[in-house]
Structures are given as C-alpha cells and as structure tokens.
Design brief:
By secondary structure, the protein is an alpha/beta fold. The chain contains seven helices and seven strands.
Length: 328
C-alpha cells in the first residue's frame, strides 16, 4: 500500500508541476485561465510576416494572441485565429489590422473598435494591413534609390574622366618639373663657376669700403667744419625769417595788384584795355588799310598824276587837259 501511495504522490506532484508550468507559460504569453475568452478570426491576403503567438493589442494593451494561421484552400486567403480576453464586447464591424509592434518589425494585430452588434465566438473581423515603418521607408526610398543609382553611374563616368585628365596632367607636370629641375641644375652650375669672381668683387668692395672709412676718418675735421657752416646758415635763415616773411607778403601784394591790372585790361578798362578789347582801333586800321590800298591802285593806274618829270623842261599838261582825240 505504501509502495502505491508513493507512486501516486509522485504522479500527482508531476501533474501539478506540469499544470503550473503550462499556466505560467500562458501567463507569460498573456493568457489567463481565470478570465473568460473569445476566439475570433480574420482573413488576409497578406499577413506581412505575422506568426503564431503574435500579440493582439487594443491601444497598446494586450488582449490576447494569435493561436493559428492557415490558408483557405478555396479562396486562397490566409485565416488567422486569435484568442481574446473577454474584457468587453467587441463589435462585429471592428477591424483587425496587422502592424509592427516594435522597431524591430515584429508583427501583431491591432484592434480598431467599431460600433454596433457585439461579436460571438467564431466571427470573422474585417482585415487591414498597416504599412510598417521599414516598409514605408523602403517604399519612399525606392525613387531615391533609382536616382542614386543613376547618380552613381554618372559619378563613376565623371571619376573616370577626371582620372584620365589627372593622369595626362600629371605626366605633363612631371615632364615640366624635370625640365625645370634640369634648368635649375644648369643655372646652379653656372653660378658655382662665377662664385670665385663674385668673391673677388666682394674683396674689392670690402677694400673700397675700408678706404672710404679711412678717408672719412682723415677728413673728420673738414666734415665737422661743413656741419658747423650748415648750422650757421640755418641759424642765419632762422634769424632772417622775419625779412623773408615780409618779402613774401610784398610779393603776394604785387601779384594781387598785377592780377587787378590784368582783370581791368580783360574788362576793357583804361587805354590798354580799350586798345585790346575795343573795336575802334581795329576799325581805324581797317579803314586806313582800305584807303592805302585805294591810293596804291590809283597810283598804279595813273602815275603821272602824282609824278611830274621831263627831260627837256617841257611843261606838263594840266590834269584836266585831254588829248585831241578825246576832245573830239
């Protein structure tokens, strides 16, 4: 009897442990044996990675989880069965939307409550599929991807062109640098050859500098006298600065008077001004010139009227007497 009683105790203990394990696992999954539950379905054409055990949420609160997923052979639609804690009535026109429950893209079902008659066990809710953040980002980035690929292709071609230009330019620059280096080496060689001559000139310059320094030392007294004379001259100029100032004032006064005279002449004032600016002198000269021209013409045409000359002392005819031919 005791033998069987021990085995019974072990069996009962094992059953209790298994039950507690199952209850604990379901509790961790969000399933409670102490709440009434309701089983509902939803049909989808695309479940976007939803798996058995996925959470069923309402406004972020877990009401249940996905129990099974299978395909309807006739309609080829995907049937998702999930259990919910019967906390409140769920209207029949509610929506079971598949969405991402975290940033990793784990899929679950979000309940969007409708209004009207409540569901009963086995009812099918309306389906919906939310575009996840990653899927949405990929959809929005698809045009950018196409443009980026096109841009990368163009950049690749541009890089090849630039590389070719740089290689050609680099070769040209290397050749140019070598030519310049050869020219610099040649110039340095020529300068090295002229270095002894430059040293000789430097010695000559140093010798001349020494001679000039010695000459200045010898002529120190004369230089001091010149400096003294310059100082006396400057002192004399400083002492006579009053006379120089008076001389400048007189010169300015004379210039002012001369400007007044020139201004009077330009205005036609005085005898000189009238001669230079008036028309009387010009008209008199013109009249005199015209009279002189008329006199010269008269003299040229009738010289006998002005000059009386005879070799035999014959009297000239009166000016008013005319030849016989003219009288007739």
């Amino acid at each position: 009897m005791n033998k069987y009683s021990k085995e019974i105790k072990v069996g009962i203990f094992t059953v209790i442990v298994v039950v507690l394990f199952i209850i604990g696992m379901n509790y961790l999954k969000g399933t409670s044996f102490f709440q009434s539950r309701i089983s509902l379905n939803a049909k989808y054409k695309q479940i976007n990675g939803l798996m058995v055990g996925g959470k069923v949420l309402y406004n972020g609160y877990q009401l249940g989880q996905v129990r099974s997923i299978y395909i309807d052979p006739q309609s080829k639609e995907i049937i998702v069965n999930f259990d919910l804690a019967h906390v409140f009535d769920i209207p029949k026109n509610s929506i079971a939307m598949i969405h991402s429950v975290d940033f990793l893209g784990t899929k679950g079902i979000q309940l969007i409550m409708g209004s009207g008659e409540p569901c009963i066990a086995g009812d099918t809710l309306k389906d919906s599929l939310e575009i996840g953040m990653v899927d949405k980002a990929m959809t929005e980035l698809e045009p950018v991807k196409v443009k980026l690929e096109s841009t990368l292709t163009e950049v690749n071609l541009l890089a090849k062109s630039i590389r070719k230009v740089i290689e050609d330019s680099t070769n040209y620059r290397i050749q140019t640098m070598l030519a310049h280096f050869q020219q610099t080496t040649y110039n340095l060689s020529q300068s090295t050859k002229k270095f002894p001559q430059l040293l000789a000139k430097f010695d000559t310059i140093a010798s001349n500098t020494s001679t000039i320094t010695g000459t200045l030392a010898q002529e120190k007294e004369k230089i001091q006298k010149i400096v003294h004379n310059v100082k006396l001259l400057s002192d004399s100029l400083a002492a006579g600065s009053g006379d120089i100032k008076q001389l400048m004032q007189n010169a300015q006064k004379t210039l002012a008077e001369l400007q007044g005279i020139v201004k009077s002449i330009n205005n036609g004032e005085g005898t000189i001004g009238k001669l230079l600016k008036g028309d009387e002198l010009h008209q008199s000269v013109v009249k005199t010139t015209e009279s002189l021209n008329a006199l010269l013409v008269e003299f040229k045409e009738h010289p006998k009227r002005f000059v009386h000359f005879s070799l035999f002392g014959k009297k000239d005819k009166p000016q008013n007497s005319l030849p016989k031919s003219e009288k007739k």
